[in-house]
Amino acid sequence: MNPSQNVIITAWNYGRMALVQRSRNRWTNLFYRGVDGDALVERRRSHDESTNIDEGFFTWLPAVFRVTREQVLAKCGPDAVHYLSFQRHAITLMFIVTIISIGIILPINFQGTNLQVDANTFSRTTLSNLNGRSYWLWAHTLISICFLPISVLIMRRCTGRKPVPTSMTGTIMITNISRADRNEATIRAYFTHNFPHIQIVDLRLAYNINKLNEVQEKKEMVTEALVYTDTYYKKTGKRITVKEKVCGPEVDALEFYSAEEKRLKDEATRCRAMVLNDPLGIAFLTLPSYQLAEHVINHFNLHRGWVLAHATNPSDIVWENLSVQPSVWYVKAIIVNFALFIVLFFLTTPAIIVNLFNTLVVKPDSVNRISSIIFEFLPTLLLWTMAAVMPAIVAFSDKFLSHWTKSQQNYSIMTKTVSFLLLMTLILPSLGLASAEAFVAWTLHHENDTMRWDCVFLPDKGAFFVNYIITSGFIGTALELIRFPELFLYVWYLLQSKSKAEKSYVKKAILYEFPFGVHYAWSLAIISITIVYSLACPLISPFGLVYLLLKHVGDKHNLYFAYGPSDMSGVGGGRIHAAAVRMIRVSVLLLLVNMAAWAGLRSGFEARTIILIMASIVAFGTFLLLSPFPSCTPPAPLQVESSVRYHEYVAPVLQKPIDSTPISTPSTPDYGASSPVTNPAYNPEPINI
């Protein structure tokens, strides 16, 4: 392998640096490679065979297909299994939709003569090429209704085999504890007195760990840098220098990090003492089983305003956010959601930017082929850019809300982002409107209603969505593999480091959990657009299928090789996966509404229109009242196990000793080895989602 290929490999695999560190000259060398630095930092080898699954240039592609479900479950956690299972079933559904659209609907649309256009034009393949009273439209009507049971039958068994944790939590989360009762003796005495026959396995209080966590992270970075500096000096006899400030003088790294470690150790000791002396109004009471916890919650009499609820797994809890009071959380939620509403209301779609661009930049009368393509491609590119940027804004704003659990944070991000994307990329562009503000103004004005409604179903309207699906499939999925946000953040951390000794710790800082909420939202938006326009514009279906295939491969690679494990499988943690499956119904409902609206405008209030309206009402009522998508959250009571392993509800920073020192030279964990995710069991019983 020549040097240029080696550089390409290291650049491509930068995202794996937090997961894989080997003795070879790979992954991290692109950004910091010294002549003798590689010999100083020894990487640990993974004891799993999957470590050697990706060994060369572009071997990640076949490696993705060789990774089994059990390997994903053991390495990435149950949430990754749920997510990939959702994608596989969505691909199956999209494959059926594509076969029907291309094999049946496309020939029907193409043989129509309503538009009187050339056979090479795009509009010849659309629904507008058929006369509004053509009997061929009954095929569209029956197929759109058949999509409803097909989607139900495929998606309701989304997971098939469900990964479950080896032990179910029997822990109760007690909140709203008054300051006078915030001690273990008082809480233990109350439950011992009122439930004398129930054994208390463990009782833990929660603390405000934000300051301690910040100090501890700095101390760990300094400690690893000190070990690196000391090892470097012993092996080479050379001293590493540190710049405390950008324009400051260079000082000896060994002396600097030794003094910093002592200072941060003393500060961490003081912070830890202050934290333990001031607990929050939250406690975790662990009982022998889930059934006993359920019994205590149901028979608990209101005592001093305490609130009892089942606790999720410790790995699902965001310990830093427990210090946020509920009243403060609601105030922040109102402010953030109001700001998002303003953005949504006034800047919903990039059509505003396109109109501004057309106003400021006058298109010349004689343009060459390249500039013509740019002007035609610009609206689609802007739409995709806004669809990629705005979910990131939604996710960032939702993190500012300080949710107590990762599952609730991802669920909130998913629901908001799906609503925004459907409105921005499907509903408003279909109506030919620029923003929600224009939609409200349209509904309030009654002039030229017929003309405006006739403009909704233009023959070439589907071309815009086909371009959007193509852009998302071939550009969007490729950029997800590159992961520019993580790359920029990694480079920013490198620029902030004071010396090369700190770069070992930077590799740990880029290990993130997969953002399920955002990726679920993107997938659901593309699925909805494809299904809604699969009959009106059949050519969109194969590109929707290609998008899901490419996204499945890219997400599986990122989950297994680039992101850390995630476990949101505790009580209520599976809600995001169940909600994603249920949201498939939105696309089917929108398809029925779209077909009913088209039939009403083109042919009037006839039998086909009535059937489609009734089908829409029945589908909506069925999904609302008798949902065919059962929840993926396990029902209570949960299975009783012979050997129960209890979780420790203690913040990770409080489990680390202050004087901890790395045993060996600093190295990053192999494939998330430091993650608290437990090894889940594999339940062979089929379940419904």
TrEMBL record:
Main location: membrane
Subcellular location: Membrane
Record-annotated CSC1/OSCA1-like N-terminal transmembrane domain positions: 50-149
Membrane topology according to the record: Multi-pass membrane protein
Region (Disordered): 660-689
Domain CSC1/OSCA1-like 7TM region: 333-596
Domain CSC1/OSCA1-like cytosolic intervals: 171-321
Keywords: Membrane, Transmembrane, Transmembrane helix, Transport
InterPro entries noted in UniProt: Csc1-like (IPR045122), CSC1/OSCA1-like_7TM (IPR003864), CSC1/OSCA1-like_cyt (IPR027815), CSC1/OSCA1-like_N (IPR032880)
Residue ranges of the TM segments: 90-110, 135-155, 334-357, 377-397, 418-444, 464-495, 516-541, 576-598, 610-629
Family of the protein in this entry: Belongs to the CSC1 (TC 1.A.17) family.
PANTHER family, alphabetized: PROBABLE MEMBRANE PROTEIN DUF221-RELATED (PTHR13018), RE44586P (PTHR13018:SF5)
Protein name in UniProt: CSC1-like protein 2
